[in-house]
C-alpha cells in the first residue's frame, strides 16, 4: 500500500471502524515493527485510561496478553503526568521527558514480558484530559529509538492523524446526541416516523411500529409506508410534500380505526446539502388504547399497584365491571380501589382521573 492509499484508508476508517486493522497492518509493515495500535485515551484522576483500542492483526490476537500489562496502570506511560503537553507530539520511550530512568527500565521488562520491544508514537490532544495516539512497538529485544526514516514517516502522517482524530471526536459527539434523541423518541408514547418524500422509512419508534401493525389501512413493505387505498396514498404523499397543509386523516375499516397524521418537520430541499430530504411525521389513532406502564402510574400518583392497574385499564377504555371480571375480583373491590385512587389523585370523578393520567404522561 503506497502513502496515498494508506492515507485514504485512514480516512475511510473514520466511518468504518473495521478498516483500522487493515490500516494498522499496512503501517506496521511499512515501519517493520511488531505492533501498531490506535487508541483514544482519557484522563481519570492520576491515570490515563485507554477507552478505545484498534489493533493490527497480531496485536488483536495477543490483546489479552498485552492488556495485562502494556495497556494497564502498570505501564508508566499511563500515568497522568505523561499525557501530551501540547496539541500534538511525536515521542518515544527513549525521548519522552516525562519518563524517568526507572520508568524506562520498567517499560523494558514489562514490554518484553508482552513480547514487545521499545515504543514510539504519534499523539494528538482532542479535548481537555483526552487524546488519541497511534503507538508502535518494535519486536521483543529490539530497544532502538526512532530512526530518521521512522521520524520522517510519522511527520508525514501527523497532519492526517490530527485531522482524523478531530473527525472521530466530532463523529462520536454526533452519535452520542443521536443516541440520546433516539432513546427519547423511542420511549415516548407518540408514534413517530422519519421518512423521505417517497415514504421510505429511515427511522420509526416503537410506538409507530405498534400502531402500523395494529391498523388495517397502513403497512410497511420493503422499507416504505404503504396505504391500502390509492386515495390514502395520495393524500399522505401530498401532506408529506407540503402540498396540502400539515395534517390529514386516512380511513380504516371502522370509524375508530381512523389514522391521523401530522408532519412535525420537513427538511428544506437543498441540493447543496448531503443527505436526503426527510420529514418527521406523528401518527395517532383515537381508537387505539394508549400503552401505559402501571408501575409508572403508581409512582407518579402515589397509588398501590392494584389501584394503578385499575387506572391504566380505565385509561384504555375498560369499565370497572369489565376490569373486575378481567382480574377475577369482586366489582365492589374494584370500586373501592377506584375510590382510593380518586382520593390520592385529588379528583372526584373517574373521567377526571383518566384525563389527569393522560395529561401527565403526555407531558412527560
Automatic annotation (TrEMBL):
The GO annotation for biological process reads: regulation of DNA-templated transcription
SMART domains from the UniProt entry: HTH_LUXR
Positions of the HTH luxR-type domain = 300-357
Compositional bias of type Basic and acidic residues: which residue ranges? 78-89
UniProt keyword terms in alphabetical order:
DNA-binding
Region Disordered, residue ranges: 69-89
Under Gene Ontology molecular function, one entry of this record is: DNA binding
Full protein name: DNA-binding CsgD family transcriptional regulator
Give the organism the record lists: Novosphingobium hassiacum
